[in-house]
Specification:
504 residues; alpha+beta; Aminopeptidase; 3 domains; 9 strands; 10% strand; malonyl-CoA decarboxylase activity; cytoplasm; EC 4.1.1.9; lyase; mitochondrion
């Protein structure tokens, strides 16, 4: 057995020269010098990976001894973690591929048991259930036992969350299309879903008195409306604001998903009044001015928990918390960004231009106004001028252009949110999230986010998804099962206008 320091040495350390057997094998396999052989990341990586995996990924106990076998030593988990962390990014792909491919399910045993299960269908129920249980056990990947044991050592759960983040990146970047990697991803997601079930999460309110480390992470993780400075952060956790996070005992001091809430008199129609006005920074809250809760930012902090339901549970828990604090509160709504709208719109305009259907998008009067405002001739030049306007923020500086484009962009945005689908569900990920939670697509807001980011992503438009608490369960079921989008008259009116103008 090669000692663990030597495994690290496979990445180029001259300490490996002390191990004669390894050196002999290296020279036999290659005519080049031993030093160059040890400097080769491919050869060294494969050998080191094989050794560490063969040692730490122990065989699954037999079905009969599954509850009686002693656990492997904790050092196996620690050695695996240390080795993986020492790998370069490109080597991790090879390591995870080898782990998932060579230490997965025993397919031969599964096939044999599947045949046996078919043969037992005429037997008594007890026999059938026993064979099914044996088959279920045999379908367990060998590496799953190692993952379970890693979760029990200090820092193990966080390690596995980060490990899955690497797997998700590999799959999304198409660095590997191996079905084994996808199976590893599914196994990790299933385990993490169990470990991060809502009953094991702790709801924590973040205030200015929270530990500095937590406040700093809240600032770093804010993905929707970046925090500019400490004064900005203080405002977001101060009067008329609430900040909540889910935490987990296995990852102390690490917020998993963060929700920012504004407490307002009415449902907000712009983000500027929430994140950029500091008039009430040191004021006391007046309960009489708090009638609505606006969820204006929700950020998942751990890429490895992608697909593990946390955000929807956080919103539901926060609603209960706010109802307890403000029993009279009855209005709950998001003020959400619309990522992807501008890029979708540019693609739509390009498609209509190519098909010679540019006149279908706007009414005759609207095209005349665009032509006059941009000093463009009718037809394709006007369409090109419109595309150029949308790709820049120049039109925001012109009251006339803004007035001309408002009805056009509002109905196009309504269609993007309501009508554009992926597998029958809303194409926009934020819309899909809130609709799954049972919210109603309630109101589109013009000039709601005039920041450069807001204009670039969605032409400055934002949307309220309103939570009518006595309807959320029904709405969620309608959306998930029948793909029905609940929307207000304002949204449906804008959609109807788009369909009329676009001849849909």
């Amino acid at each position: 057995m090669i000692s663990h320091p030597v495994i690290w040495g496979f990445r180029g350390s001259v300490r490996c020269w002390r191990h004669r057997a390894v050196v002999k094998a290296a020279l036999k396999a290659s005519d080049i010098s031993g030093w160059r052989w040890y400097s080769s990341p491919n050869r060294v990586g494969v050998t080191g990976m094989e050794e560490i995996l063969a040692r730490v990924v122990v065989p699954l106990p037999t079905y009969e001894t599954r509850d009686k076998s002693p656990p492997p030593p904790e050092s196996n988990s620690l050695d695996f973690m240390h080795f993986y962390k020492s790998l370069e990014k490109e080597d991790r792909l090879g390591f995870l591929t080898k782990l998932s491919q060579d230490f997965g399910v025993d397919h031969k045993s599964v096939s044999e048991l599947a045949v046996k299960l078919l043969d037992t269908q005429l037997r008594d129920l007890a026999t059938i259930l026993q064979v099914e249980d044996r088959l279920r056990y045999t379908l367990t990947p060998r590496y799953k036992q190692l993952l379970n044991h890693i979760s029990r050592v200090e820092g193990g759960v966080k390690f596995l969350v980060d490990l899955r983040a690497d797997v998700v990146e590999i799959i999304s970047s198409k660095a590997s299309e191996s079905p084994h990697i996808k199976d590893l991803n599914g196994t990790l997601k299933s385990l993490l879903s169990e470990w991060f079930s809502v009953g094991l999460l702790r709801l924590e309110r973040i205030t200015w008195q929270s530990p500095c480390e937590i406040l700093q992470k809240i600032s770093q993780y804010e993905a929707v409306h970046p925090v500019r400075n400490w004064s900005d952060l203080k405002r977001r956790v101060g009067p008329y604001r609430r900040c909540y996070a889910f935490t987990h005992a296995a990852m102390p001091g690490e917020p998993l998903v963060v929700l920012h809430v504004a407490l307002t008199e009415n449902i907000s129609d712009n983000i500027q009044s929430i994140v950029r006005e500091f008039a009430t920074l040191d004021s006391e809250e007046d309960v009489n001015k708090i009638n609505a809760a606006i969820f204006y930012s929700i950020s998942s902090t751990q890429a490895g928990l992608q697909g593990v339901e946390l955000g929807n549970y956080l919103i539901k828990r926060v609603v209960r918390e706010l109802q307890s604090e403000f029993p009279h509160m009855a209005q709950f709504s998001s003020l959400s960004p619309i990522p992807g709208f501008s890029s979708w719109l540019q693609g739509l305009l390009s498609q209509y231009r190519k098909e010679g259907r540019g006149s279908d998008l706007l009414s005759e009067q609207e095209w005349k106004e665009v032509e006059q405002a941009t000093d463009s001739p009718s037809g394709t030049p006007a369409l090109d001028a419109l595309r150029k306007l949308i790709s820049t923020s120049e039109w925001l500086r012109s009251e006339r252009l803004s007035r001309v484009l408002e009805p056009v962009l509002m109905r196009l945005c309504a269609w993007y949110l309501y009508g554009e689908k992926r597998r029958g569900y809303a194409l926009n990920p934020v819309a899909n999230f809130h609709l799954q939670n049972g919210a109603t697509m309630w109101r589109l807001n013009w000039h709601a986010d005039t920041s450069p980011r807001g204009v670039a992503n969605s032409c400055g438009i934002m949307v309220n998804y309103r939570y009518f608490l006595n309807e959320t369960s029904k709405n969620s079921a309608l959306y998930l099962q029948n793909k029905v989008v609940m929307a207000s008259e304002q949204v449906l009116g804008l959609v109807s206008q788009f369909q009329k103008n676009s001849k849909l």
